[in-house]
Design goal:
The complex is a heterodimer of chains A (227) and B (275). By secondary structure, chain A is α+β, with helices and mostly antiparallel strands. Chain A has helices spanning 14-31, 72-78, 134-139, 143-151, 177-190, 197-205, 216-224; strands at residues 36-39, 46-57, 60-61, 70-71, 101-112, 117-126, 157-161, 168-172. Chain A has one domain. Helices cover 32% and strands 23% of the residues of chain A. In chain A, strands 1, 2, 3, 4, 5, 6, 7 and 8 form an 8-stranded antiparallel β-sheet that branches. In chain A, helix 1 (14-31) crosses helix 7. The longest helix of chain A is centred in the N-terminal third of the chain and has 18 residues, at 14-31. The radius of gyration of chain A is 18 Å and the shape is globular. Chain B is of the alpha/beta class and 275 residues long. Chain B has helices spanning 2-12, 50-57, 83-90, 118-137, 140-144, 147-158, 162-172, 215-222, 251-257; strands at 15-22, 35-40, 69-72, 75-76, 98-103, 187-190, 236-239, 265-271. In chain B, the strands form 2 sheets. Chain B has a 5-stranded mixed β-sheet. In chain B, strands 6-8-7 form a 3-stranded mixed β-sheet, covered by helices on one side. In chain B, helix 6 (147-158) crosses helix 7. Chain B is globular, with a radius of gyration of 20 Å. The chains are: A alpha+beta (227), B alpha/beta (275). The interface between A and B is medium-sized, with 23 and 26 residues. Chain B: Its main location: cytoplasm. Chain B: Keywords: Acetylation, Apoptosis, Autophagy, Cytoplasm, Immunity, Isopeptide bond, Membrane, Ubl conjugation.
Amino acid sequence: MDYDSCNTDLHLGEKTFQLSCHNFIQHSKAIGDGWVWESIEATNEGYMKKVLLKMKNAFGYTIPEQQKIVNEKTYRQEFEVQDTMDLEEIDISSIDLSGREMIRFEYHVVYSSSYQVPVLYFRACDIDGRPLTLEEIWQSVQENYKERLLEGPWETITQQEHPLLGQPFFILHPCRTHELMTPILKGAREEKQSVNYITAWLSMMGPVLGLNLPISYTTATSAQQLD
Amino acid sequence: MADDKDVLRDVWFGRIPTCFTLYQEEVTEREADPYYLLLPRVSYLTLVTDKVKKHFQKVMKPEDIGEMWFEYEGTPLKWHYPIGLLFDLHASHTALPWSITVHFKDFPEKDLLHCPSNSVIEAHFMSSIKEADALKHKGQVINEMQKKDHKQLWMGLQNDKFDQFWAINRKLMEYPAEEGGFRYIPFRIYQTVSERPFIQKLFRPITAEGQPHTLIDLLKEVSPFAVSQGGGEKKYQVVIHGIEPMLETPVQWLSEHLSYPDNFLHISVIPISTD
C-alpha cells in the first residue's frame, strides 16, 4: 500500500485514494448501490459521488431501516422518469408522495491533499431545488452522533466551498480523520490483512449522515486490494 | 529581518478604497446614499462591514432585510475569500474605488456560503490556519498551541492588531534550520477563466538538491498555462496582494511574508487586458 514509510505515519496518497475509490465503485456497481466516479475535465482528479432520495415526514427524516431508500436510478425506474430528464425537471404533481416531502441528498468523497485523507462533502435540496439549511441538515444526523459532534469545534458540520466545484457544501471536518484511521490501518497491517481505506473510513463516517454501507463491501473491496 | 518586518506590515495594512451601493431593486423608504470605506485586504467582507449594513438598514423596513450579501458586476463575492484576493481576482483592472453592490434579498444559495455570525468567520479562519499548518508542520505547531493562542490569532485579525497577531503567528512561520523550509507550501492559485475555484497541490519549498524553489517553479508545475513558453508574449499577470512579485522569488520566503493571516499564499492568475 502507498503509505508513508514511517510506521507512525499512515497517510493516504492521492493515487491510492483513486485506486481505493475505483475498487469501492466496482463493488457498488455489482450490488447496484449507486456510487460513481466524477472526473474533473482536463485533469487526472475527480471525486466519488452518490445521490440518495429520502422521504421526510413530520418526525424528521426517515432512517434507512424504517423507510425505503431509493437511489436516483431506482427513483427514475419507479416513477417511470425518462433518463434524459434532470431530477429538477420532474413533474412532482404526477408523484404520489402521500403528503411527505422528498429530499435529494448528494454525497461526494473528495481527496484532501492537505490532510492526505478523504473528506465527505454533502448537500441536500427539496424536490423544487431549494437547498436545505444547516438546521435542516442537522435533523438528518443520527441522534447518537449529535452528542459526539457537539463535543469539539473541529468535529462539527460546517458549510464550506467544494474545492473542485466551487459550490457550497456541508462537510464533516477532516482534521481528525487520520487520527481515527491510524489504529485501523495499523491493526490491519499487523494482522497482514488488506483494508480498503475508503470502505473502512466510510463505514465509520457515513452513518453519521444516514449513509450506511452494506456489509458486503468489507469482504469485496478487501479482496481486490493490492499490497 | 528588520526589512522583512516592513514587508509584513505593508501587507497587513493594505487597504482598498471601496464604494458600497445598495442594489437598485431593494425596497427603501428613501434614497440610500452610497457608503465609502477603506477595506483591509487581509480580512473578510462580512467581518468588516457592520457599518455598511447599519447604513443601509436605516433606509429599509425590517421585513425587507435578509442576510446581507455582496456582488461585483454580477458576480456574488465569496465572503470566505480574503478581501484582497477578491479584488485582485475580479476588479484589479478597473478604476478605483471598487464598486460593490449590496443586496438583502435573493441570497444566491448555490454560489455563497451563509455567514450568520462572526463565529462562522472565526471557525473558517481557524480551519484555514489549521489546514495550512497541516501542510507546513503536519499540524504539530497549531495543535500544540493553547486555546488562548488560537484566540489571540483571531482577535488580532478581528481588531486589526498587527503585533498581537504576529506574536503568535511567528511560531507558525518557523521551521527546523536543517530542513531549510516548511514541509509543503500552503498555496492556492485562482483564475476566473476556470470553473474550478482554485488549484491546490503538494509542493515542497526546497529541491532534492537543497536549492530553493521559486515562484516560477511552482507555476510551471501547477499552472503551466500561466507562464509564457519560449519567450512568447506574456498573457497573464501573477498577482499576490495586488503586486506582481518577480518569478525568481523563493516560495519559502513568499510563504513566510506574503501569506494572508490564514497562512495561505493566495495567488491570482489574471489575463492581461488589451485595452
